[in-house]
From TrEMBL:
This is Septum formation initiator family protein. Residues 60-94 form a coiled coil. The keyword Acetylation does not apply. The keyword Mitochondrion does not apply. Keywords: Coiled coil, Membrane, Transmembrane, Transmembrane helix. One of its GO terms (biological process) is cell division. The chain crosses the membrane at residues 34-54. InterPro entries: DivIC (IPR039076), FtsL/DivIC (IPR007060). It comes from Streptococcus zalophi. Pfam families: DivIC. PANTHER family: CELL DIVISION PROTEIN DIVIC (PTHR40027).
Length: 123
């Protein structure tokens, strides 16, 4: 193998140029570290609000589901209440009370025989 014919001079200009090159490289490294740190901080600043936004969205969806369930329960209870009010209004009529007691509780007069049909029983 052949030896290269390049000889490096060690004069003041070369030393200054090398020192200047090392200084510039160090400045570039510092700048890159700073930019990396800034990017990490910006990333963290975006992650926290995103997490809060997602958790708020999940809580909102849970509340919406809860509202739907409560609305269904409300409708069921309202329907039951209306049925009971209707029954209470009907029970004010003495003829209906007599029919209701005879059908529901099998009340009868002496000597009567009651034959019940399930579809005609009051609820």
């Amino acid at each position: 193998m052949k030896k290269p014919n390049i000889v490096q001079l060690n004069n003041d200009f070369i030393k200054d140029a090398n020192q200047k090159k090392r200084f510039e490289e160090e400045e570039i490294r510092k700048r890159h570290r700073f930019i990396g740190l800034v990017l990490i901080v910006i990333t963290l600043l975006f992650i926290l609000p995103t997490y809060n936004l997602v958790s708020s969205y999940v809580a909102l969806e849970n509340r919406k589901q809860q509202i739907i369930e409560l609305q269904k329960e409300f409708n069921t209870l309202e329907e039951e209440t209306n049925q009971k009010k209707e029954l209470a209004n009907r029970l004010k009529d003495t003829d209906y009370v007599e029919k209701y007691a005879r059908a529901k509780y099998s009340y009868k007069f002496e000597g009567e025989v009651i034959l019940q049909t399930p579809e005609l029983l009051p609820k």
